[in-house]
Structures are given as C-alpha cells and as structure tokens.
Amino acid sequence: MSPFPRADYAALHPYDPGRIPVRVDLSDNTNLWGPHPAALARIRAATADDLRCYPEVYADTLRRAVAERFGVGIDCVTTGVGSDDVLDSSFRAASGPGAVVSYPAPTFSMIGDLARMNGMEPRPVGWQDAVDDPRWLLEGGPALVYLCRPNNPTGALLPAEWVERLLGLRDPEGPLVVIDEAYADFGPDSLIDWAARLPRLLVARTCSKAYGLAGLRCGFGVGRPDVVLEVEKARGPYKVSRLTAEVAALVLRDADGWIGRTVAECLDNRDRLRGELEKRGLRTLASHANFILVAAPSGSAKADNDAFREHGVTTRPFTGIPEIGEGLRVTMGPWRLLERFLEALDLRLGALEEIAAP
Fold it and tell me: In the beta sheet, which residues pair with residue 178?
C-alpha cells in the first residue's frame, strides 16, 4: 500500500473558522484595541535587511526578551510561529507509536487535529470529570496531557492547586504536561515559573492576544532546559522572522505599560458586558480570559450569530458546552464595539419575543 495519503489523516480537514468579514468582528479573541505602539514603530522603521536576511536560527533576541520578562534562563525558552506552533512541536517531541494526548474537553478546537497531525491519538476527558479527579487524564498512560488555562472557549480556570495535584499524580517518567496560557494575561496567575523548575512541564504563550500581534504569528514556551531542547529539535530552525522576533521583544518589554492599561480596560469591559447580558436574562460563564461565553438566546448559536451578521456583528458560535449547551463567544474590545453587539443582541431578542408571542 502507498503511504500517501496517510490513513490517519482521513479525519482531518483544513482549518476553517467560518469567518465572513463584517464591521464588528468579535469572533477571534485578538486585541481589538490594536497592536502595541512600539510594534508599529519598529515595523515602520524596517530595512531591506529585515526581509533579505535569514532570521536568527532560534530567535535568540526574542528568547532573551522572554527570559528577562519572566525571570528565567534563556535556555528555558523556545519560540514558534504562534503558540500553536509551539504546541505542535511539543506534540511531535512526545509522539511515538500508540502515543495518546489527553485533555479536558471542551477546549481549544485545534488540539484533536494537532494530535492526529503528529500521528497521536486524541483522548478527550469530560471537563467536570477531569476537574473532579485529574487521574482521569492519566488513565491509559498518555504521552502528553494538554491543559488550556484559562480555557478556550469557556474562560474557566483550572486552579493552581488542581494542576499541582495532577503533576503530583504523575509517574516520574510520566507524560509531558503542556499548559496553554494564551489568555493568562487576562487571568489571575501564571504557572510559567513552575515550568522553569519542574520536570516534564511546558507553558506555551502567544503574542496574538494581549500583545496585539496576531498578524505576525509569534509564540513562545517556557520549560526546563531538557524539555525545551526536545521541543527545539522538533520545531526546526529559522521559524520566527527577524522582524517578528524584534517586534515581539519590544512588546514583551512594554516600556510604557501599554499592555497593563489595555488589559485593565478589557477586564472592566468584560465585567460590564457580563452584567448587561445577565440584565437581559442570559446565562454567562465566569471568564478569566478576554472573552465571555453566553448561552445562545434561541438555543441555536448558529442561528443567533447569523442574525447578528445581518446587523454587521459577528461572534463565535459553539455547541456542546457544559451548563449552557449552545453558546456564543464574544471577544472583548473598546466599549463602542460591545455597544454594537448589544444593539444587535437586543434586535435578536426582540425578534425572538415576536416569534414566541401567541
């Protein structure tokens, strides 16, 4: 038999977020305040060499900035083309015949696909089952355990004590635990310092959310040097462009405190929007990220989002969410954008009331 195409790729399909351009896009959790001003300044000062020359082999400029920002050694830092590249490399480093990736579900929608891309078997564990007893994630001897903290799309936060318990339950030669902290800037804590000290642990971060650099595709991870070495071997050289690495390094240093101010406004708007949604009788999930997941008013997230599109607004619909069933994930942004969402929502609620009237 021909090895191409791979039989285990039959279940894979090209990624399609279903995005249709609208005036107010609240669907992808990027920074709707825009990029860091230092990023724009560096891009505008770009030279021919930024494009002509190969970048650093392993993005040492960016690695140094991450090391300074989080107080770890440079040999504790890996980088990638977005945090999903860091995740992909960590999966590949852990993969092998019969390798399993376990994770609490629902979570980041790419995890099952990343597992299959690397010849691994995805094994989701119901979120509440995992919360009640992390041993469920260790059943069957997985090669890797993935945790999204805060979780996407729900915004839930696995407590640090819960993570500590999971790590303590591992066999000394047990799985690599990968913690995806894409939204940690909006939550109460980070476990990056754990990753630099504890064995078989990697924390992945992105520059696409709080830092406003989604278009540059830049991520990084922190772990002990022995963990980072294996991820670096799986990832290959020259991944992060020269311009991207230098821009991300500037933003990480955040000399004028722009990130802190933007995150603070985001959290204020998150609390304010949650209050507005609950005033309208809609159930929301507590969020530690830069979005809110709200129960679909009609019970059909797709139908509700299609109705929003008619008024120039889009969110991200989800199904199968514990506690609420179908839900709409709403990215936070400046209040004027959230007002547009509330206007579209009120029109949808009014239409539903008319339908329900005798």
Answer: 146, 202
CA angle 30, 34, 40 (to 5 degrees): 125
Dump pLDDT digits (tens) for 34-44.
Answer: 999 999 999 99
Architecture per CATH, 37-253: 3-Layer(aba) Sandwich (3.40)
Q: Which amino acid is at 113?
A: D
| CATH number assigned to the domain covering 20-31+258-356 | 3.90.1150.10
Contact between 66 and 244 under an 8 Å Cβ cutoff? The reply is no
Angle, alpha carbons 24-28-32 (nearest 5°): 55
Q: What is the mean pLDDT of residues 212-225?
A: 97
Instruction: Map out the domains of the chain as residue ranges.
Output: 20-31+258-356, 37-253
Alpha carbon 71 to its chain centroid, in Å, reads 23
Query: Measured on CA atoms in the order 135, 137, 138, 139, is the torsion positive or negative?
Result: positive
Residues 255-268 pLDDT 10s:
899 999 999 999 99
State the Cα–Cα distance between residues 306 and 276, nearest whole angstrom: 21
> End-to-end CA distance of the chain, in Å?
63
Residue 26: both structure tokens together: 């609240």
* pLDDT at position 1 over 60: no
Under DSSP, the state recorded for 284 is: B
Could you list the beta-strand ranges (E) of the chain.
Answer: 24-25, 77-80, 100-105, 121-126, 144-148, 176-180, 201-206, 219-223, 291-295, 313-314, 316-321, 325-331
Cβ-in-10-Å burial (0-12, 13-18, 19+) of 276 comes to middle
Q: Which two tokens stand for residue 345?
A: 């929502």
Quote the CA–CA distance of 212 and 208 in Å, as a whole number: 5
Q: Is the Cβ–Cβ distance between 82 and 217 less than 8 Å?
A: yes
